[in-house]
UniProtKB/TrEMBL annotation:
Name of this chain's protein: DUF1349 domain-containing protein
PANTHER family named in the record: REGULATION OF ENOLASE PROTEIN 1
Domain of life: Eukaryota
Coiled-coil parts of chain: none
């Protein structure tokens, strides 16, 4: 288990380093597990509640264009809003995350959150059928300067378009996060991790 400033090594990726503050990570069979402490999140509530920016992103400098994907799941029980996350960030006011999140209704699916300045823009994409919600694949891509795309998949082959958006600024980092806003903690698992070229078609399932 790594909680220091020593880089975390994952095959096929640059060395991973903690953003903002160190967290808890371990590597198993080429995969990654991030353990979130209780009451940890990365969000600025548009309704005006105080920002919660105490989760621990782990990542690397974002290439000019790229696609980062992983199969994601939670090791153990999960509570409301627990999620493994793919995230891109510049600072605590400019970032975006794609979560495999448990909703207040108990349903699970991809949720995207964008923060390009003062507050977060939060949107649920869809929910998975009961019994098929143990894992899914998430993909975060940078397709041009300042332009990012989120996709999600139930089989790692057909990619559902979730969101395209712009973020202002440069010097982005991209990587992984675990969150547990209302629960006692969350062990987020990432495997089948792949860093490759950005998709050229965004809405055709590729």
């Amino acid at each position: 288990m790594s909680s220091s400033s020593v880089p975390v090594e994952i095959p096929g990726l640059p060395p991973l380093e903690w953003g903002f503050h160190p967290g808890r990570a371990s590597t198993v069979d080429g995969g990654l597990e991030l353990v979130a402490h209780a009451a940890t999140d990365w969000v600025v509530d548009p309704l005006g509640s105080p920002p919660v920016l105490n989760a621990c992103p782990l990542g690397f400098a974002a290439p000019a264009t790229f696609s980062l994907s992983a199969r994601v799941s939670v090791n153990g029980p999960r509570t409301e809003f627990d999620a493994p996350v793919l995230m891109v960030w510049r600072d605590d006011a400019h970032w975006a995350k794609l979560c495999f999140e448990r909703s207040p209704t108990g349903q699970i699916g991809p949720v995207s959150v964008i923060n390009n300045g003062e507050t977060s823009d939060d949107a649920n994409a869809y929910t998975l059928p009961e019994g098929k919600d143990g894992h899914m694949w998430l993909r975060l891509s940078r397709v041009a300067e300042g332009t990012f795309v989120f996709h999600a998949s139930t089989d790692g082959k057909w990619w559902d378009f979730v969101r395209i958006f712009r973020l202002s600024g440069t010097d982005w980092r991209v990587g992984f996060l675990s969150q547990s806003p209302t629960g006692p903690g969350c062990a987020a698992r990432f495997d089948e991790i792949h860093l490759g070229a950005a998709p050229t078609s965004l809405r055709d399932g590729s």
